[in-house]
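User: Predict the structure for this protein chain, please.
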Amino acid sequence: MDNQIRRELRLLKGYALVVTALLGSLSLAAFRQNTQKAHFSEIDVERINIVEPDGKLRMVLSNRPRSIGPIYKGKPFGYKGGGRPGIIFFNDEGTENGGLTFTGTRDSTGKYSASSGLSFDQFDQDQVVYLQYNDNNGQRRMGFVVADRVDANVANIWDMVAQRDSINKMPNGPAREEALRQWAAPRHGQALFAPRVYVGRNAARSALIDLSDPNGKPRLRLVVDSLGSARLEFLDEAGTVTAKFS
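Assistant: Here is the predicted structure, written as structure tokens:
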């Protein structure tokens, strides 16, 4: 009996040693897998999601078909994806807050259109600092914009889009038009969107700087036109030039 017990104890000890060694090997392999970096000479991919440890999106790089639509705190809204090839950024809450996008195509008649942009969004709102290039078969506008948007505590982008989408479902007519007018009106004295600074080149091939009021109306303009003539203009709220120096 004693010999049998000793044999069983030896078998148990041996089993314990094997299990311990196996668990140690698995732990070491898992550690190496988590710490070692993969190296690729070249990789083809349609989309890459950069995520935080909790799974929130931080950045998405994608082609057009797999591009992401607007996201607010992890929830899709506004419109579906599939139209924004490039890179989309997200803040700590998983809300979109800017990106880099680009397009360019030529139709069967030979005419082309192209665009690209780098933008940064106001918190819980849309873009307020951006570089843009837009080209409609040679009619080009490109520049840098700084804009104001209504404060997020007055109207955040999620609620604004939901309100607009609800209005757009109304039948065409005066009631719908009035609802859209009220939706687009300033809230608590703040314009929903007002470009304040524009530095760029317009479709008329003029280089210009526009400084605008809180409602987005240009009030001071510095221009060098397509012929090389320079001028400084002061404008009223209606856009009428009240003084000009050249």
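The chain has a mean pLDDT of 90.
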